[in-house]
TrEMBL record:
GO biological process: DNA synthesis involved in DNA repair; DNA-templated DNA replication
Organism (species): Persicobacter diffluens
Protein name: Replication-associated recombination protein A
InterPro entries cross-referenced by the UniProt entry: AAA+_ATPase (IPR003593), AAA_assoc_2 (IPR032423), AAA_ATPase_RarA/MGS1/WRNIP1 (IPR051314), ATPase_AAA_core (IPR003959), DNA_pol3_clamp-load_cplx_C (IPR008921), MgsA_C (IPR021886), P-loop_NTPase (IPR027417)
Database matches in PANTHER family: ATPASE WRNIP1 (PTHR13779:SF7), WERNER HELICASE-INTERACTING PROTEIN 1 FAMILY MEMBER (PTHR13779)
Family label: Belongs to the AAA ATPase family. RarA/MGS1/WRNIP1 subfamily.
Pfam families for the chain: AAA (PF00004), AAA_assoc_2 (PF16193), MgsA_C (PF12002)
Role this protein plays: DNA-dependent ATPase that plays important roles in cellular responses to stalled DNA replication processes.
Length: 422
């Protein structure tokens, strides 16, 4: 049996070594790059990027314990430059320290710059955890000194395995001999977040008597009543962002502005909201109203310059505009089809007539030969093959059923006749 009764279940079941890690086998499995680093006794400065509850904090703790380094942790939500410098000063005076910074994307430039010198001089090994793309949120100088590793969402079987482990091994819960009759609510309410899942299991276990069964109905009932008490620091902004985007996608400007306002009231980073709107402008509105991307881009730039509170007006205008626009995910579907096609067919060679020929040698090899310059033709259109050999006639972009793309479909059909089935 494992666990200290005074700790939450998620802490009682936290893995103590790399072999107990759930998921992330591409990093910690037998051929994983981080396992190799630990076995060599060397931990580089790195950024762990992934959704909440997939093991970023746990992995940092395991790495520090494995290489026997002093371990310090800071939260970018509550720590300032002073806190960073105190850790660095202590590491410089005493011993090189592994410094873990949760939510590192929330550090401003000054805070990140304070880390840079210590990383360069080797006083600290930095492990930053972020749910945001580090290319956008970590300054270039610091990012260039860190390896970036992506943690994946946990698979359904991984999550079920955590539940089974809690019911069979935890010192508090195991004696109750509980059974899981249905997993659906446990998995959907926790949203793939292992920490939320274990908090939820603890709530349900507390409510059940010995030999009880965990059902969907019970889970939903208890989650609504008590989940907030167990997860006060949850990443609720993901739920609110999801509601805002789905309201935009559903063409409801009222709901879109409401959920956006909830995010603002909760103290959400203005760039986080603007970035979600920018993505939605292309993913959900797309070619049905290409101006939406222009509006969202300008909104993103404007709120960075203005900030709160006036930035809320710009965000509201953008959210209302996107929600009120006709919708098309045709571009989104096209790029996904293209990615799957590339996975299936590999790196097919560029046809010779489409290749650039800046040298005589390349021209002699046939580069550019037979290329028909579109603007030399009526309507600025040249009927030639643009896809690699073997993919001729493959349609990736299929215009949506909206006024703008109906015209696009007719235009493509006129020029391409029946080649792509428009």
């Amino acid at each position: 049996m494992i666990g200290n009764k005074q700790q939450p279940l998620a802490e009682r079941l936290r893995p103590r070594n790399i072999d107990e890690m759930v998921g992330q086998q591409h990093l910690v499995g037998p051929k994983g790059v981080l396992r190799h680093s630990l076995e060599s006794g060397m931990v580089p400065s790195l950024i762990l990027w992934g959704p909440p509850g997939v093991g970023k904090t746990t992995l940092a703790q395991i790495m520090a314990e494995t290489v026997k380094m002093p371990f310090a942790t800071l939260s970018a939500i509550s720590s300032g430059v002073k806190d960073v410098r105190e850790v660095i000063d202590k590491a410089r005076r005493q011993e090189k320290t592994l410094l873990f910074i949760d939510e590192i994307h929330r550090f401003n430039k000054g805070q990140q710059d304070a880390l840079l010198g210590a990383v360069e001089r080797g006083h600290i090994t930095l492990i930053g955890a972020t749910t945001e793309n580090p290319s956008f949120e970590v300054n270039g100088a610091l990012l260039s000194r860190c390896q970036v590793y992506t943690l994946k969402s946990l698979e359904e079987e991984d999550l079920k395995g955590l539940v089974r482990r809690a019911l069979s091994e935890d010192k508090v819960i195991a004696p109750k001999n509980l059974e899981v009759a249905e997993y659906e609510a446990l998995l959907s309410v926790s949203g793939g977040d292992a920490r939320k899942l274990l908090n939820l299991v603890e709530i349900v276990a507390d409510a059940l008597k010995e030999g009880g069964q965990i059902t969907n109905e019970l889970v939903k009932k208890l989650a609504q009543q008590r989940m907030a008490l167990y997860d006060k620091n949850a990443d609720q902004h993901y739920d609110l962002a999801s509601a805002m985007i789905k309201s935009i996608r559903g063409s409801d400007p009222n709901a879109a502005v409401y959920w956006m306002s909830r995010m603002i009231k909760g103290g959400e980073d203005i760039k986080f909201i603007a970035r979600r709107l920018l993505i939605s402008a292309s993913e959900d509105v797309g070619m049905a109203n290409p101006t939406a991307l222009v509006i969202a881009t300008n909104a993103f730039q404007a709120v960075q310059a203005i900030g709160y509170p006036e930035g809320r007006i710009i965000l509201a205008q953008c959210a209302a505009y996107l929600a009120s626009s006709p919708k098309s995910n045709a571009s989104y579907m096209a790029v996904n089809k293209a990615m799957r096609l590339i996975d299936a067919t590999g790196d097919l060679p560029v046809p010779l007539h489409l290749r650039n020929a800046p040298t005589k040698f390349m021209k002699g090899q046939g580069y550019g030969k037979g290329y028909n310059y579109s603007h030399d033709n009526p309507g600025n259109f040249a009927p030639q093959e643009y896809l690699p050999e073997g993919l001729e006639g493959t349609k990736l972009y299929d215009p949506g059923d909206n006024q703008k793309e109906k015209h696009t479909r007719e235009w493509l059909k006129y020029w391409w006749k029946d080649k792509y089935g428009y």
